Amino acid sequence: xxxxxxxxxxxxxxxxxxxxxxxxxxxxxxxxxxxxxxxxxxxxxxxxxxxxxxxxxxxxxxxxxxxxxxxxxxxxxxxxxxxxxxxxxxxxxxxxxxxxxxxxxxxxxxxxxxxxxxxxxxxxxxxxxxxxxxxxxxxxxxxxxxxxxxxxxxxxxxxxxxxxxxxxxxxxxxxxxxxxxxxxxxxxxxxxxxxxxxxxxxxxxxxxxxxxxxxxxxxxxxxxxxxxxxxxxxxxxxxxxxx
Length: 243
What we know:
Elements: H1 2-27, H2 46-56, H3 58-73, H4 86-89, H5 95-106, E1 115-121, H6 132-140, E2 145-153, E3 159-166, H7 173-188, E4 194-199, H8 201-239
C-alpha cells in the first residue's frame, strides 16, 4: 500500500496548492453560501482577536505554536510497534488461548511457533555432520533460547534444519529481540563453506518491525515538510488576498 498512499499524498498536495485555490477563486463569495456572515467581521470575536494578535507578533506566535507541536510530537520517540495482540485482546477462555497456556506449562512459550535456522552448503557439497552438535550448542546458548537442535537434513545433505525454541511467545517483544541475537550467532558461527538463514514467525515480526520503524523515520519528516509548505502557501494567500 506504500506506493499507492505516496501517490495519493502527492496528488492531494498538488491539488491543495493549485486546484482548490483556483476553484475557490472562480466561485468567489458563493463558496460560503447560504451564510452571509463573511461580509462582516464579528466584533470582539475570539478568533478575530487571535488573528490580530498573531499579526502583531508573528514571530512569537510561530515560536509558541512550534514549541507546542514539538512537545506533542515527543511521544513518537518512544513508539514501539507490538505484534503481541493476543495477550491484550483475546479472552483467556478462548480455545486458542487455553491451548497456548497449556503448551507454555508443558513446554516452552515459543514451542507453538519455533524459529528455524537453515544451514546450507555454499559449494553444493554435503555438510559436515560432525559440526552439527557444536553449531546447535551455540544457538542454544543465546539468551532467550530454551532449546536448539538439528531436526532434519535434505536428501542431498546440503541443507540442515535447526529448530530453535524460544522461551517467549513468538509475537512478543522479548521473542523479537531474542531472534535478532539468534540471527547474529547463526550468521557469525556458521561453519566454513556454509551460510545460515533464519526463518519463523519471530523472524517475520522482526523484519516487519524494522520496516515499520524505517518507514516512520522517512514518512513523518516528509509529511511535516509538505504540511509546512501547504500552511506557508495558505498564509501567503491570506496575507495578500489581492494577489
